[in-house]
């Protein structure tokens, strides 16, 4: 073998070190990018048809939030848990933000709210033929009303301690109680209750009706714990991305894609 020829083992070692160098360079670059634009973690409940793990793109609301953040170079992750747990874990900074939440004065003490992302109309449901009529919250005094744990409906309704409100964990439990005559009314998001019935119990659709009148029309937000890391930055970047997708037509396209 000529003295000027390289040993094959040397070529192998050089190649191996070069490969390791490239890998480390790539890894450092990836870490730098992730440090500059970290994935933002959201927590929420399953709240179809707005958001849920079994919906297309995890629901239209999730799709809007994800697309808005893409405009500012962020990815998001969404964890779905029961609502009371979602609130607890957000408050204790296990996550960066809450996906889909109504505004209340109590919540605003510890949360930063985004610009409105969507809206939820809260109405009353009754068994068809009950002919319940109401004009003010006081008119609802005689009725047993089903609500869900930890939800905000409207400031007036929530603070009306004179009402007969019965709280449960899940919407379907209230529907069951209503049909069994153990409730007179259910307070719920119109879009959400109708979606649940049409998806899970279409045979009872003609047994339930919307009581005329709107309890409240609530904007839906994303919100960031004030004590959370980068909370104000994440809020600002979301609002910026949301405005961009509204201005360029992407927001409207997402609604159409999901049938709204």
From TrEMBL:
The chain crosses the membrane at residues 12-33. Keywords: Membrane, Signal, Transmembrane, Transmembrane helix. Gene3D superfamilies: Periplasmic binding protein-like II (3.40.190.10). The keyword Lyase does not apply. The keyword Phosphoprotein does not apply. Residues 52-258 form the Solute-binding protein family 3/N-terminal domain. It holds the Pfam family SBP_bac_3. InterPro entries: Solute-binding_3/MltF_N. This is Putative ABC transporter, periplasmic amino acid-binding protein. It comes from Desulfamplus magnetovallimortis. The lineage of its organism: Bacteria, Pseudomonadati, Thermodesulfobacteriota, Desulfobacteria, Desulfobacterales.
